[in-house]
Amino acid sequence: MTTRVALLSREQIDRLPARAREVVEYRKSGLSLNHIQGCPLDCAYCIRHTYGLWDQRVPRALMTDAEAVEELVNHRYFQPHVTPVQVFNRATDPFLPAVRPHTFAVLEDLDGRGMTNHVLVITRHQMKAADIDRLNALKHLKVTLLFTYSGIDNKDIEPYPSHVAAESLKLMSAPDRRRYRTVLYWRPLVPGLNDTDEHLDQAYGLAGHADATVFTGLFYRDQIAEYYKANGLPEPYEDTARRKIVPETLERRVLAAFDTTTPLFRKTSCAVAYAHGLPDYNGHYGIRELCDICPLSQLDLCASAHRVPSPSQIRDASGTLPEARGLVVVDITDRAAVVSGLETEQPRYYLQHALGFQVHDVRHPHVERRHGRADIGWKEDKRDG
Ligand code: SF4
Predict the structure, then answer these.
(1) What is the pLDDT of residue 227?
(2) Of all atoms in ligand 1, which is nearest to the CA of residue 294?
(3) 122-141 tens-digit pLDDT
(4) pTM, full prediction
(5) Where are the domains of the chain?
(6) DSSP string covering 300-345
(7) What is the CB < 6 Å shell around ligand 1?
(8) Which residue's alpha carbon is at the smallest distance from atom 5 of ligand 1?
């Protein structure tokens, strides 16, 4: 496999921030592969701020695609056919011209190994008609294309126009027969920026093209807030009343803008699972208040897959992870297992996907009704899901 973006030298890699050097990392919606980093699209709220990579605008590779796939499938968190995978969702766009050959190389390598895992590919870039055939040629993977669309027209916040993602969504959703699925990834919804009735109507119109739609709020961490301040961008965190009240009001308006036949979800994994006719792989069914907008057939599917694990099943599932040696099962309810003794979130996500059941950390108790709300709040809640 060839590397189409420049391959960094060992010395250059050693100079990267520690987290940027981690090319396989568990994130909420799956095990994330990020051996290409750098993006020129400049969304002001980009997660790259939090990895010390904001200034890296040209995509560069930390290793070849073949090496990266080897690292992924041999990672202790990777379970063939089970672990949901995300490709290039942290530091670049998978369909930038220089990056797309790498995206296909990774997908084709995984597919060639007979893997049936979910693979999430999140893009706001232009896709091409030839991409349809290439994706349809994959035989095993469950691929979902998620099209990031916000409708934000403030060029200081999102210089790359949202209509490109909208056109890509329409193009890729058009074929009657296709093996991959499409999701309108409607985010970030920011009160005052992209929440007029017209914005909501436009998103609803686009949702009709997608297999499913998910709406979420803004990932607004400290480094991103600093960037907003330094660049004089209108900060969403202005007054407490707005922060507390508007997201709930906005959620009600979003729900009202949709009809019951257009599938809409609060959680990414729910939209992805629904699009493939499968139960949610994150076990959100236990968090009952998330499901009140879900199609009835999907509710039945998730209900039939919902299994509350026993303490020993949880301990068995964590048995291969050295970092989970101190794991203690504190409580198990119909909603979630509550555990302690995990230093980081990554093993918790592993357990969640291994068990198809929510696993929460005792240090961060979930508050009822908050779970579904945090995603549309100003600050994405790291405890969520
Ligand atoms: S039933 Fe609940 S958990 Fe399942 S997909 Fe719907 S919202 Fe998600």
Answers:
(1) 66
(2) 6
(3) 999 999 999 999 999 999 99
(4) 0.89
(5) 6-281
(6) HHHHHH--PPPHHHHHHHTTT-GGGTT-EEEEE-SS-EEEE--SSS
(7) 265, 267, 270, 273-274, 280, 284-285, 290-291, 294, 298-299, 302
(8) 270
